[in-house]
Amino acid sequence: MPSKLERQRQILSLLNSKLINNNDPEADLFQVPEAKPDDGKLTQNRLINQIYHFHKSIIQNINAGLVTIDLKGQITFVNRSTAQLLGYEIEEILEKNIREFFKSAEEADKFLNLCTIPGKKIDDWESEFIRKNNQRIIVGINASHLEDVSNNFEGVVLLLRDLTEIHQLKHQLERMERLALLGELSAGIAHEIRNPLAGIKAATQLLEENFTEDNFQHQVVTRIIREVDKANRLLKEFFKFARPTRPKPGFYNIEKIVDNVYLLLAPRLKNKEIKFQEKFPVVMPQVYVDETQIEQVVLNLFLNAIDAMENGGILKVVTSKKKLNPIESKKANYSMFNQDLYYVLLEISDTGTGILAENLKKIFNPFFTTKSDGLGLGLSICSRLMEENNGKIDVVSQEGGGATFVLALPTFIHR
Prior knowledge:
By secondary structure, this protein is an alpha+beta fold. It is built from eleven helices and twelve strands. The strands form three sheets. It has a five-stranded antiparallel sheet, sandwiched between helices. The chain has a five-stranded mixed sheet with strand order 7-9-10-12-11, covered by helices on one side.
């Protein structure tokens, strides 16, 4: 009986051989004839059968979508990963043209025109696709020609990869870099402005003492002092954003943090006719954060939700936990081994006006606001505080459909 290694060598040598006779259309290559018990060699048909299943296993189990299309874009083959990526059954995809998955028809035509150019190979093409549930995803595409046994160009083979999470991480990194740079700039400007304001206020208070309250000059001086105080409050917000207090983390129950904020805002929620709903699992690990700073984040998100529901609505809070995969665990820089790591996910949802699609990427930017009296620093400070506590913040929303902010809070100690 040949060894496993010898069998693999026989299969690989057959892959390069020219002994397979494909001229007989009636021949069933995958019907394995009975082998004699003492026959030490694989029959040719048995080898072909193994090759077939070997390639089928590779194609169906690779961690990428594999698609073949004809020259008009009609899909002729897909593997399981493609079906999972697009959210369809394989049979449903085989009835479609690849154009139907592109968000932009113009981009689909441009891509297919490039694919039909003789000798053209496409690498790292990125497009926005629409899944069956109407979710938009970023897909990376590699394309090369598909040839028949006579080396005639008869179609295109595509390799699809989901790049949505990579793009999200890229945007988060860019946002963090902008916040860090702007934080340093804000700290410098705020420091330079603070000293002159202190001098202006001191001098104005001296002038105020020389006028009676019913004097017009007294009213002007009082107005100056009030405006200086307003500028000082703005500077304090700058410093919160630019140089947040170093967190003093500990282990806390996230339910207690949420309840503390709710009790503070309960009268306001009642006046606005907003119902508060919460869904906490019975068992939830404690989060390792600065309690005061996370309370500030939750408070800010609650206030934003209240402002978005002027005619009443529902404010809902849901907690869950997410286990880190080995790569994320390594990035978390955890100091202990052989333990599962989790993030507690805190979802804060409202039924308000929602956020415009073009504003979703801007809401965490400093000074961006849609409120007439807003400074545009609230969500920037939330993002900065989450970063300081080794957490993450994200948002899902659509205009008129409310908004959901998701906080990911660590349950472990970072080094």
